[in-house]
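Sample entry as discussed:
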Amino acid sequence: MNIFTRLLLDLQEMSLLIARAARGLLRKPRYFPETIAQMDSIGVGSMTIIMLTGFFTGGVLTLQTYQTLASYGAVDQLGYLVGVSLIRELGPVLTALMVTGRAGSAIAAELGIMRSTEQIDALELMGLNPLRYVVVPNVLASLLALPVLTVVFDVIGIFGGYLVGVRLMGLSGGTYFGEMSNYVEMKDILGGIYKAVTFGLLIGWVCCYKGYHSRFGAEGVSAATTQAVVNASVLILVWDYFVTTVVF
């Protein structure tokens, strides 16, 4: 089987999985406790790494751009540049990549272990729909958690840029936030949140698919986890280009 045939078959199986998961959202029973538990795992569990990444991303972005802006006499635009870069692009993308590495890999590994130890088959014998019980909560939780984490990333990143630009470089705090509020528009904020929602869907979709259809044994779980992280990360970057083209 060549690579193109394999890709088409994978795309078909992934489409069927997300279609069944979407249909499961509209039917009872709905497993809200499992969804909340997954939101806690993905959202609250990823909060520390998101805050650290956002803070240092904003600080490094300020360090890299301050001298360039100063050479053109445009230091007053620093706040706008940091804000729009984080809100439009760096916030959604880096948040999605961090969540993929931390939570997406855990989702794929958990489902892979359930498949390998025949727990998914046991759920079917108990009369439970495995897609509704394990896939839908993960997809829905990642869909809801990513926008919140992205907002946290943006806020902490802007604060990190403020500390570097104002406290370290000596820029006026009023100038930093004033230019940001003047030029960052609501469509920039909504565009970043829209990106985060679609990235959350991609993470849940790809990682659940790879884990749900993993091969048996430790090697199969390991391969499924690796493929989930790699495929989701690449899809996030590719999808980001098309969403940016349409939204901005």
In short: The helical segments are 3-25, 32-71, 78-116, 119-125, 130-168, 173-183, 186-212, 217-247. The chain has a mean pLDDT of 86. The chain is about 90% helix and 0% strand.
